[in-house]
Design goal:
The protein is of the alpha/beta class and 265 residues long. 51% of the residues lie in helices and 15% in strands. The strands form two sheets. The protein has a seven-stranded parallel beta sheet, sandwiched between helices. Strands 5-8 form a two-stranded parallel ribbon.
Length: 265
């Protein structure tokens, strides 16, 4: 199969490109910077915040291969901190990369798959796209937007034989933690006394999380499925349980659990 992945310079993207290429697929990937290049993988320098870059990346694959069987929207970033102290520019940047980056790519991918009358679109959301996480509100908002967009897109593309799958990872040990931009204003720490302890808890969960190779293995299986599920939570049992609890507990009870877990009380 011909596969296009966004953001293969590191983390999930790099491991997926490595695994899917080893599976025998023809893999293309966009990147902004990379320390090493995977043999056999075709790299396309592109930024998902640039309309023309997205158009050119999709066009490059179609010109060379004549089709795109699987598109994986992986490129993303995180901005953390109390929402009150998060700038409007940060909010725009978070949505521009995580949500609009997906929208831009799909604007050019969808017509290709619709004309083929087949294909898989796999978009990365997060546990944070199912649960609004404290001090990660901008990130959660961008992932909630992906969930809603993909639900609508799935319904629209069913008649054309195109599957839309949403991936909801939990905490993974990648460079995402180091790259996250967090509010550093001293006043934020003074105003929200729990911010520092909560941030340390979040970073600990991520640094001790699952390995990206585990996720790549799961994606390999999803790519091979004829009828994949609408969504997959790829996370620890505890994080999967949290999603279940949100669906069955009264909202106030679940909010109390989150407040305790994230050291807000």
């Amino acid at each position: 199969m011909v596969i296009l992945i966004t953001g293969i310079g590191s983390g999930f993207g790099k491991q997926m490109a490595l695994r899917l290429s080893a599976d025998g697929h023809k893999v293309y990937g966009t990147f902004r910077s990379a320390s090493e290049f995977i043999p056999g993988v075709e790299y396309i320098r592109a930024d998902v915040t640039d309309d023309e870059d997205c158009r050119r990346a999709v066009e490059t694959v179609v010109i060379r291969e004549g089709r795109i069987d699987v598109f994986i929207n992986n490129a993303g970033m995180g901005i953390g901190g109390p929402l009150e102290f998060s700038s409007l520019d940060d909010a725009r940047r978070q949505m521009d990369v995580n949500w609009m980056g997906m929208v831009r790519c799909l604007h050019f991918v969808v017509p290709v798959m619709r004309k083929q009358r087949c294909g898989k679109i796999i978009c990365f959301s997060s546990i944070g796209g199912l649960i609004g996480l404290p001090f990660q509100g901008l990130y959660s908002a961008s992932k909630f937007a992906i969930e809603g967009y993909c639900q609508a897109l799935r319904l629209e593309l069913m008649e054309f034989g195109v599957n839309v799958v949403v991936i909801e990872p939990g905490d993974f040990a990648t460079n995402f933690t180091a790259k996250r931009k967090s509010v550093a204003d001293p006043l934020a720490y003074q105003t929200y006394k729990c911010y520092e302890a909560s941030l340390k808890s979040i970073e600990k969960d991520e640094s001790t999380g699952l390995k990206p190779e585990y996720l790549a293995k799961k994606i390999s299986r999803i790519v091979s499925k004829k009828r994949p599920a609408y969504s997959y939570i790829i996370a620890t049992p505890l994080q999967k349980l949290s999603v279940l609890l949100k669906s069955i507990l009264p909202a106030r009870w679940f909010a109390l659990i989150l407040r305790i877990y994230y050291k807000l009380i």
